[in-house]
Design brief:
With 97 residues, the protein is mostly helical. The protein is built from two helices and no strands. Helix 1 runs antiparallel to helix 2.
């Protein structure tokens, strides 16, 4: 019996141009920052509605809180991205030997 070859199952090759990968990472980081800002703003708005009698907050304060949480989320994303790239570099270096 012969092995089946599934379509679309290709091994990921090393990037041809590392500058393109860096630009993709930067664009991805900006997109993640924007999405996380909107996410935190919506969650804080929802929380302010639920806690209406206990948490008296203005919209400007919610935007400030969202910006702080966005920065925290973006820093965590960048740290995970750097770790992933280091791991990929280590594996590529090992495979080249």
């Amino acid at each position: 019996m012969e092995k089946r070859r599934w379509a679309g199952r290709k091994k990921k090759a090393a990037p041809d141009n590392p500058n393109v990968e860096r630009v993709k990472d930067i664009i991805g980081c900006v997109v993640i920052a924007g999405i996380s800002f909107l996410y935190w703003l919506v969650m804080l708005l929802f929380a302010s509605l639920v806690l209406l009698n206990y948490w008296h907050v203005k919209f400007d304060q919610l935007v400030d809180y969202s910006i702080v949480l966005m920065v925290v989320t973006t820093v965590i994303y960048v740290i995970s991205l750097v770790r992933r790239r280091k791991k990929e570099h280590r594996i590529a270096k090992y495979m080249a030997e």
